[in-house]
Amino acid sequence: MPARKKTRRQQQQGRSRQRDTQEQPKEQQQEELAPAYRVEHSELYGRYLVANRALAAGEQLIREQPLAIGPCVSCEPVCLGCYQPVQLGPEQCRCKGCGWPLCAADCRGLGQSSGHSREECELYGRRRPQAAELLKESASPDAVRDLYELVLIVRILLMRKHQPEKYAKIRLMESHTEQRRENLTLWQHYEKKVVQRLLHDWQLAQELSGLEPAEMHEICGILDVNCFEIGQRGGKARTLYPSAFLLAHDCRPNTSHTDDPLDYSIILRTSRSVREQETLTLSYAYTLQGTLKRRTFIQGGKLFWCQCQRCADPRELGSDCSDLVCKICRAGSIRATEPLKQEADWACDRCAHRIESVQVERLLDHINDDLESIDVHDIPALENFLIRYREVLRPNHYLLLSAKYSLCQIYGRVEGYLLPELSPQDIERKERYCREFLAVVDILEPGLTRLRGLIMYELHAPIMVLAQLGMQSGRMSRQEFQRRIKEVVRLLKESAHILQLEPPGSSEHEMGRAAADALAKINAQL
Ligand SMILES: C[S@@+](CC[C@H](N)C(=O)[O-])C[C@H]1O[C@@H](n2cnc3c(N)ncnc32)[C@H](O)[C@@H]1O
């Protein structure tokens, strides 16, 4: 995060303390209940968490600070103190001790174990030619990525010497080392980019006696299997938490989590009510992706093939978010015949047309690249994308939904398309996209989830504006107007409730407050 002025930080801390005090009675109540979960073990999951009793939606299960935190593996350089983006040019502030780029000389993360610690700075200071001096403006994206990939690994290896208790906890995490060793590409990547580099170029064994390649590979595995990616307000980091890593994966999970921008704590809650004995789950993959891609992603990093209910269902629990248009009969939808087999054919549900899954993958990669090349603020280009692929993908397809979600967020917010400038057709379009998106999110991320809160907030605005326009023009009946206002109130209520569960200081929390304010104004007028 950019260096924040003391007053702002103090204000934020003040808000946070206030919130703690307000929540105290609730926490006291919870203390009287049995613990919310317990750790179990199975052949399939290894260790995992189960509900110890029936849990209500929104119950806080875990709040804990990271055991380890560092930059994400990315080509974008970030401040080592607070993980906000930085530049590599001569103007950028650099650490006096080691030369790595920082957001500012008084970054709040300097000298902190959650940021750029003294031990790290001293080590990098001794390795300037192999580290900071490579971080120049002319450095290739790969060179930047390779260096930033090392940071969290080195931080953990330094704990071996400086924080042995934390290090011991981390080493108890799953690394899947044997399975990783069998994957030659993966193994060689870490052998070359991490192990050899740290041992030979950085001479790390001089700093940490007895350090062996096997231990370094194990740490790389632990990070791949157990890391969370977190971040608020443009910052991005990866973290290991003491117990949140124990949650098993499901592609329609029953918990949701967020992180506190002040101390990087994870806050994990039930997103819907959970039965006693039910497995507590979160999603290791982005839920708004199709089964073919999600399963490949999970297998790549976490080394298992997901077999959850959603993955096993060709219609993905009725969301149809992987459906393609059959180009032979046009009326049918093409879906995986056996979704738990990556290589199984895809077939039309109306005619005999079939395609191989590799062809589907190629098509999806192509469309995804096309979408990625569009600026997320470019309304005409996103609209054009929807037109280009409506003959190829069904309306709920996750790639179309991704474009629709961007449009939901920018109609009414970007120049030339601000709310007063929007035509009724544009407003109707925003409403339609929001509804289509929400219908799928209701299936795949039901309950008190951030995405539902955000999209409900977006949806309230077009309904409200169209209702007002309808009344003004005399084309809408009083009854219809009231029905719409009722819907606006419901959306704002739910959105305010969900988004205010997000930590103060986050943009989502701000939006939750805006929803609550809008609701209060409407209630005052009713
Ligand atoms: C973040 S760790 C979870 C904790 C781990 N079970 C342990 O005992 O340390 C992720 C690993 O748990 C297992 N796992 C989690 N969810 C799973 C699922 N739905 N199906 C199969 N294995 C799963 C896999 O071995 C995965 O790599």
UniProtKB/TrEMBL annotation:
PROSITE patterns xrefs: SET (PS50280)
Basic and acidic residues compositional bias, start-end: 17-29
SET domain location: 29-285
GO cellular component annotations of the record: cytoplasm; nucleus
Domain of life: Eukaryota
InterPro entries: SET_dom, SET_dom_sf, SET_SmydA-8
Gene Ontology molecular function: N-methyltransferase activity; protein methyltransferase activity; S-adenosylmethionine-dependent methyltransferase activity
Gene3D superfamilies tied to this protein: 1.10.220.160, 6.10.140.2220, SET domain
Annotated stretches, region: Disordered: 1-34
Protein name: Uncharacterized protein, isoform A
